[in-house]
Design a protein that fits this description.
Blueprint: H1 26-29, H2 31-41, H3 62-77, H4 81-86, H5 91-99, H6 104-110
């Protein structure tokens, strides 16, 4: 409402005569055209991108993932420049190197891991080897 009238005024959107919608996609979005094509061909339009189906229940949320990445980048930047150069200044290259058990001896020589540090086991299939340690209550 305006302060001088009892009826509300509607805001107007001016496009200066230009359409803001891409008209060349009109038929691809019209359900009537899509159904007519289906009746003629017996096929629905194919998606333009591959779908992704995954169980992401164990994946961290966006903020946690972002903080882990930032921590990894900062940790990599604190390494001596000689080590950074060894991995082409790419933290991902360092992670790939450390993931390979064949590189354990070199990683120890470079001071990236301690000699006593155990090598992480590969994860077991779900349900196998997931027994709690003795003495811990099972909830």
């Amino acid at each position: 409402m305006t302060q001088f009238a009892d009826t509300p005024t509607r805001p107007r959107l001016s496009t200066n005569g230009k359409k803001r919608v891409q008209q060349h996609h009109r038929d691809d979005a019209d359900i009537n055209v899509i159904v007519d094509r289906w009746r003629k061909t017996g096929r629905l339009p194919m998606p333009t991108k591959d779908e992704l189906y995954a169980d992401l229940t164990d994946v961290d949320d966006y903020l946690t993932s972002k903080l882990k990445i930032e921590y990894a980048l900062e940790s990599f930047k604190r390494l001596p420049i000689k080590l950074q150069k060894r991995f082409d200044h790419e933290p991902g290259e360092l992670l790939r190197f450390l993931d390979n058990p064949d590189n354990r001896t070199e990683a120890i020589d470079l001071g990236l891991i301690e000699k006593d540090e155990p090598v992480p086991d590969s994860p077991t299939p779900s349900g196998e080897g997931d027994e709690p340690p003795a003495g811990d209550p099972v909830t």
